[in-house]
Amino acid sequence: MNLLISQQQVAELAFRAPDFIAPEAIPESTILAAQQKFIKPVFGDLYDAMLTRTTLAEFTSEYVAPPLALYVKMLMLPSLAVQSGAAGVVEVTGKNLARVSDERLRAAIARLRGDAAALIRRAVEHVEADPTRFPEYDPRENILNRVSTEGGVILPKCRMKNVE
Q1: What are the DSSP E strand ranges found in the chain?
Q2: For residues 95 and 92, what is the distance between their CA atoms, to the nearest angstrom?
């Protein structure tokens, strides 16, 4: 599998204490799914270059790995909650397990999505500030430049032509 981030990096970046999870518990397939869902649609051909060009390793590590790790965690949360036990979705509070509401789970996922989106915008700004360093990137292909999400609804961005 061609991954932009390792299981170890995901564990270090997204599952710090008290959320620690062993790197081997992070499926590589989830990392690949996060790349395909959240990174490739933003970076287009630059995504493919990140997988193959070692000169992009620093950019990938500094700008792409942090949001990617959060996206992986976001994808994993529902399955981690289900695996918590027969009590359903649980939260560890000291030695006690308490049921976590669906609302709290949705809020945690929304927070992760928001944080990851802010970090991915930071990466895009970095790329767009130095187009000669990232010739594979085409801002017209960046899904963030074509659609927006409002209240969970995906909306096309309208481009107004100059009207006189």
Answers
A1: 90-93, 96-99, 147-150, 153-156
A2: 7
pTM over 0.85: no
147 by Cβ neighbours in 10 Å (0-12 / 13-18 / 19+) ranks as: exposed
| Cα distance between residue 153 and residue 103, in whole Å | 18
- Find all residues with CB under 8 Å of 88, minimum gap 6, and list them: 81, 82, 99
The number of beta carbons lying within 10 Å of the beta carbon of residue 85 is 10
pLDDT tens for residues 63-77? 999 999 999 999 998
Other Cβ atoms less than 10 A from the Cβ of 21: the count is 16
**Alpha carbon distance 83, 104 (integer Å):** 17
Q: Find how far residue 74's CA is from the centre of its chain.
A: 7
Between CA 29 and CA 16 the distance in angstroms is 21
- 151 within 8 A of 110, measured Cβ to Cβ: no
Segment (H or E) for 45: helix 45-52
Beta bridge partners of 149: 154
Alpha-carbon distance of 101 to 90, in angstroms, equals: 9
- 14 is written with which tokens? 């997204």
Give the integer Cα–Cα distance in Å for 94 and 132: 52
